[in-house]
């Protein structure tokens, strides 16, 4: 069961700077590295809500893994650009979260890349889908609501 009505439409922003190692021979961000930036955004979003992924594995027996990705590359980011990775969760299920993510160049607010990333919750022992514990899903959703409230103030 997927829900969007009870998921606040709020975003989490995470700053990223483009390092030389992130670029290709043309001096622009190598296309696969946008996925790395998005991963950092999702991980830091969970961390900001108080959830460390290694602790979720140990205490709750769950892992979050990427199930599917859809990306649109819109503009090139270059060495030393400051970027902001924005992440939101417009839909969720009992064992999944769907992220909408954008990578914005800070200097001119150009969207360099946007994507949808579906993340599944798996049982750490069996690697099979596993519903997120109710308290975890509730904590994530209430954390989103708290972020939305704080951004309005």
From TrEMBL:
SUPFAM superfamilies, per database record: Thioesterase/thiol ester dehydrase-isomerase
The Swiss-Prot or TrEMBL record annotates one GO molecular function as: fatty acyl-CoA hydrolase activity
* UniProt entry keywords in alphabetical sequence: Hydrolase
The text of the family note is:
Belongs to the 4-hydroxybenzoyl-CoA thioesterase family.
**Which NCBIfam families does the entry link to?**
thio_ybgC (TIGR02799), YbgC/FadM family acyl-CoA thioesterase (TIGR00051)
The name of this protein is Tol-pal system-associated acyl-CoA thioesterase
User: Which organism does this record belong to?
Assistant: Thiorhodococcus minor
Upper lineage: Bacteria, Pseudomonadati, Pseudomonadota, Gammaproteobacteria, Chromatiales
């Amino acid at each position: 069961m997927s829900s969007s009505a009870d998921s606040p439409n709020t975003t989490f922003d995470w700053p990223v700077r483009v390092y030389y190692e992130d670029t290709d021979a043309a001096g622009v961000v190598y296309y696969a590295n946008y996925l790395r930036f998005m991963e950092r955004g999702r991980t830091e979003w969970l961390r900001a809500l108080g959830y460390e992924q290694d602790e979720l594995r140990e205490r709750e027996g769950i892992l979050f893994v990427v199930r599917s990705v859809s990306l649109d590359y819109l503009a090139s980011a270059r060495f030393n650009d400051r970027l902001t990775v924005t992440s939101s969760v417009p839909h969720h299920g009992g064992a999944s979260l769907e992220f909408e993510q954008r990578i914005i160049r800070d200097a001119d607010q150009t969207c360099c890349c946007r994507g949808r990333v579906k993340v599944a919750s798996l049982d750490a022992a069996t690697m099979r889908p596993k519903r997120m514990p109710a308290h975890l899903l509730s904590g994530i959703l209430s954390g989103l609501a708290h972020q939305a409230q704080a951004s309005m103030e």
